[in-house]
Amino acid sequence: MASHIVGYPRMGPKRELKFALESFWDGKSSAEDLQKVSADLRSSIWKQMSDAGIKYIPSNTFAYYDQVLDTTAMLGAVPARYNWNGGEIGFDTYFSMARGNASVPAMEMTKWFDTNYHYIVPELGPDVKFSYASHKAVTEYKEAKGLGVETVPVLVGPVSYLLLSKPSKGVEKTFSLLSLLPKILPIYKEVIAELKAAGASWIQFDEPMLVMDLESHKLQAFTEAYSELESTLSGLNVLVETYFADIPAEAFKTLTGLKGVTAYGFDLIRGTKTLDLIKGGFPEGKYLFAGVVDGRNIWANDLAGSLTILTELESIVGKDKLVVSTSCSLLHTAVDLINEPKLDKEIKSWLAFAAQKVVEVDALAKALAGHKDEAFFSANAAAQASRKTSPRVTNEAVQKAAAALKGSDHRRATNVSARLDAQQKKLNLPILPTTTIGSFPQTIELRKVRREYKAKKISEEEYVNAIREEISKVVKIQEELDIDVLVHGEPERNDMVEYFGEQLSGFAFTANGWVQSYGSRCVKPPIIYGDVSRPKAMTVFWSSMAQSMTARPMKGMLTGPIALAIKDEVEDLEKAGINVIQIDEAALREGLPLRKAEHAFYLDWAVHSFRITNCGVQDTTQIHTHMCYSNFNDIIHSIIDMDADVITIENSRSDEKLLSVFREGVKYGAGIGPGVYDIHSPRIPSTDEIADRINKMLAVLETNILWVNPDCGLKTRKYTEVKPALQNMVAAAKLLRTQLASAK
Predict the structure, then answer these.
(1) Which residues are catalytically annotated?
(2) Per-residue pLDDT tens digits for 341-361
(3) Among 144, 455, 643, 719, whose CB has the most other CB atoms within 10 angstroms?
(4) ∠ at Cα 9 (5, 12), nearest 5°?
């Protein structure tokens, strides 16, 4: 019985690629150094899968930024502003598209479906001259072959690539991206031909757009694309992989009817209804790659349950046509539990990171072939039972408090307009008030202080003094820049989510459970293993300290909403004299189900949870929330329903797409701060550029509700970038205030 992995984490078990990328970007190492680190990581990954017994090992899933940008490079679809003159695309052009450079901004970045991973959005139009400009897929296949590992090269499928793109600036929004299919397929043919010549026997096309609600003409594009590729694909086994949700019945019919395709991959974790479609009729003689091991979480697989499903599928498709697989790429989970020696033993037994999921896939394949590892399955069954019955999972007080929430929609008593009036009397802010999103640069010295405190190399008093000094520095910088609503910079937090998780019960923490978010940015999500509660105040000490250093309003900074725990914290901050409290809800759009029929239930639940966090505060306490890097236009009415006083939201990197909903007549009465510059790029925007952005906002938003702020927190930037950018931001706000005053 064969086994398959859709894709694998690329950062390395200790974030080796992250550090190599940042060293290269900072000019501290060469392109050759970066290539050496990445080659070593690829070699290690391929060997690991080969040693584990995996038959179908992926290649070309390793990206320096993301796999969609890799495809843009492969197709030579470089926007004109990057002045690329043809030939093989090098690091300069590739990273300029991803991060921008001194003279031009980066391309838009958005969430990859409903995950916390991001991709660079292709910018396409009728005049794009496509060309075969990156041979990475073939190079990586040959590289693996040279190491004695036969791999399945993975390409983002041509139709999904186009549907994940957007029209270039200046191109009509009604432009049909699918009209470019005849222009990109010749390049796919070149890549396929080279892979065949290099000896590839399998190729994998990732077509995740097939799980979305697609109109018939979009489904027809898949049929046309693979019909056109059929002759080139002749002689290859072709896998079309889908993931993240059930595949709709019409899409299933389209997929299983594609010409030249020999295998279909399905996510059977988030696509349980797909099982019914397979049972209802699977094409004879085709391979089924059954995604029964979850690529998106860190829980151990229920091996007995998976084996039951696989046995049933085997009776439908045949023993030699069933392949055990992951539900999607393992990119979305942490790398290896072996790097977690301090993790609680019981909780650790419940977990499986990427390396362990590879072993699970192999164990299931062997069990299906009659070579079941009884000891492995027995240990897994014991861990499954332990997780279901462990007393640490359920907290009776939390259960009672949650039950008591029923029957109320938890809205604040006064409408937002009246609240904003009350807040303005108290805060006395100018029009177009300026603020930042929370974090300030995390310097090497600051990281060292936190590391030494954690290792007990410095005392608590020394730690508090060091953090106090850092907060004082950040407050002083903001006052000198003349920012209106300040933040304390979050120097005590390595990662916001991790920081809160460490102070809440029901969470466990890893030492190296890093997951890539975008580029070199990794997050280390805490593990929620049980009911969550707040034993004591989490931020009041630092926020009160920061407020004591300035007469200006200081924002309390929270991540949300673990509703009941955050509600307690909000009310404690208010009692401590913090009049502006930001409750981040960065992942609200990210969690939106992929299928429209499931949207309403999710949004009602998520928005209600947010309202619970702040329903008890006074009218004069201003509640902010922040969202970043997603398409918010389709949920704008739910955002309004959150009933926050002010929302700060990503805007600058997506060509101010957010503003279009207001142009189309959506009325927004609360405060809003669409980001005026992109913090994920090292580029420093000019005062005029920011003023131009603010003017575009003023064309569709009332002056008295508009805030001026960056897109997101500043922790990943350097002070040499942050200070001049904020200086220009404040100058732009003041320039517009003067112009507005003289126009009266």
Answers:
(1) 680
(2) 999 999 999 999 999 999 999
(3) 144
(4) 135
- Rounded distance, CA 251 to CA 159, Å? 13
Residue at token pair 């059977």: 268
The answer to whether the CB of 26 falls within 8 A of the CB of 520 is no
d(CA 664, CA 647): 19
pLDDT for residue 716 is more than 90: no
> For residue 13, which amino acid is it?
P
Per-residue tokens: 300: 């151990």
Average pLDDT over residues 100-123: 92
Tokens of 493: 């937090």
With 0-12 CB in 10 A as exposed, 13-18 as middle and 19+ as buried, what is 596? exposed
Phi, psi of 627 (to 5 degrees): -135, 150
Q: Are 187 and 237 in contact (CB under 8 A)?
A: no
pLDDT in tens, 621-676: 999 999 875 667 788 889 999 999 999 988 877 666 677 787 777 888 899 999 99
Number of Cβ within a 10 Å radius of residue 636: 15
542 vs 531: CA distance, rounded Å: 26
The pLDDT value given to residue 184 = 98
- Copy the structure tokens of residue 124: 């396409």
pLDDT at position 629:
58
Average pLDDT of span 174-198? 98
Whole-angstrom distance, CA of residue 287 vs CA of residue 291: 13
What is the Cα–Cα distance from 679 to 714, expressed in whole angstroms?
A: 6
Closest CA to 7 of 162, 151, 139, 222: 151
Q: Given this model, what pLDDT does residue 652 score?
A: 76
Q: Which amino acid is at 199?
A: G
24: left (phi over 0), alpha (psi -120 to 50) or beta: alpha
Segment 274-300, tens digit of pLDDT: 999 999 999 999 999 999 999 999 999
Question: Which stretches does DSSP call E strand in 490-544?
Answer: 505-508, 515-518, 521-523, 527-533
Q: Is the peptide bond before 710 cis (omega within 30 degrees of 0)?
A: no
Distances from the Cα of 594 to the Cαs of 247, 248, 599, 627, 632, in angstroms? 11, 11, 8, 19, 14
* Helices assigned H by DSSP within 10-111: 16-25, 31-51, 67-74, 91-99
pTM: 0.89
- Show the 3-state SS of 98-112: HHCCCCCCCCCEEEC
DSSP state of 351: B
Output the CA–CA distances (angstroms, integers) from residue 546 to 480, 494, 502, 558, in the order listed. Answer: 16, 18, 22, 15
Q: How far is CA 708 from CA 157, 481, 551, 628, in A?
A: 40, 14, 20, 15
- Distance from CA of residue 363 to its chain's centroid? 30
